[in-house]
Fold this sequence. Notes:
This protein is about 35% helix and about 20% strand. The chain is α/β, with parallel strands linked by helices. α1 (about 35-50) packs parallel to α2 (about 65-75). The radius of gyration is 19 Å and the shape is globular.
Amino acid sequence: MKILAMDIGAGTKDVLLYDDRKKSIENCVKIVLPSPSQVFAAKVREATRLYKDIFVKGDIIGGGAFAFALRTHVEKGLRVMMTENAAYTVRNNLNEVRELGIEIIAGENKPRNFKGETLTIEEVNLTKLQGFLTEFDETLSDVDVVAFAVQDHGVFPKGMSNRRFRIQKMKELLKDYRKPETLAFKEEEIPSYFLRMKSAALTSRRQSSWAKVLLMDTSPAAVLGCLKDPVVEKADRFSL
Length: 240
């Protein structure tokens, strides 16, 4: 089996191309890249420096540095326009996005007579990754599974913090089956309130339609990974 696994965090995107035909996991390709949030934040800062308005379209990605850069751009008196889908990157409540001074527009086309910078945001670009891997005689065309770990706070109700909502949903999912694997979702199993996970799944489907997709929150993914450590596996276990 061949698995393309990515942990997309605030600072880095860690990539593992696992291939069970290799002698060991140490022989599998591993790459650490800047996270999409950091990459697009740098583009926003450059647009701010050049005093250019920004139009953002594309997928939902992790906000973090990118969202902060957009807010700073607005505070400098410059315009930020985003499509509805892309705007969920900043907040899961679009009214809160508007309150930050960001304009939300319908459709994917940039406004007429717009002369600023256009950013098409995405968490994953498999074409670029394949281009890099080609230099090392590696291919993604025979990947069986694309697996993502992202932090998705979910669409939370008014009056509840995003962190509390995220933990509450984890507790609910773990109620019947108390294993970290419960928090891993196939494409069709992703809860409707996890917009970033759904966006990542759609991105993968768009770029690698032949591969199955698996999504998981970064925290339980890390816990599950630790439990597979050879030293930990030999230790006494405890129930969650």
